[in-house]
Amino acid sequence: MLVRCPECLSKARIAASEQITSNTRSLYCQCLNLNCSATFNASLSFDKIIRSPKQGSEKPDFTKQPELVANANQMDLTLEEPAPCLP
C-alpha cells in the first residue's frame, strides 16, 4: 500500500497504526523526503464487500498459494495487535 505525504507528495511510511473500530484503523505516517519529514495521520477503512464468496470464506491453502504467506517484515493492518517485525 502506497501512502503519499499530503505536503510534498513523496512516499511515506506507516510507522504505527491503531484499531479504531472493527472496520477502521488509524495510520500514523512519516514522509520519507528528508527535506519535508512531515508526520501525519490517515485512516484505513473497509466500506463494503463488493462480491461475497458463493460458498463462504475459508483461509487459503498455502501449499497451493504460497504467495499468500504473510511476509514477516510486513505488518498486517487488520490485526488488533500488530505482529512484531523480524530483523
Write a structural description:
- The protein has strands at residues 3-4, 11-21, 24-31, 39-45.
- It has 87 residues and is an all-beta fold.
- The chain has a domain at 1-46.
- A hairpin with a 6-residue loop joins strand 1 (3-4) and strand 2.
The amount of beta strand, in percent, is 25-35%
Unreliable residue stretches = none
Shape: elongated
How are the strands of the biggest sheet laid out side by side? 1-2-3-4
Query: Average pLDDT value?
Result: 82
Instruction: State the secondary-structure class.
Output: mainly beta
Largest sheet: 4 strands, antiparallel
Instruction: Report the oligomer.
Output: single chain
Radius of gyration computed on alpha carbons: 16 Å
Task: Work out the helicity level.
Answer: under 10%
Number of strand elements: 4
* Order of helix and strand elements from N to C terminus: EEEE
> Distance between termini?
21 Å
Number of helices: 0
How would you describe this structure in keywords?
87 residues; mainly beta; 32% strand
List the helices and strands and how they pair.
Layout: E1 3-4, E2 11-21, E3 24-31, E4 39-45
Antiparallel strand pairs: 1-2, 2-3, 3-4
Task: Give a short synopsis of this structure.
The chain has 87 residues and is mostly beta strands. Helices cover 0% and strands 32% of the residues.
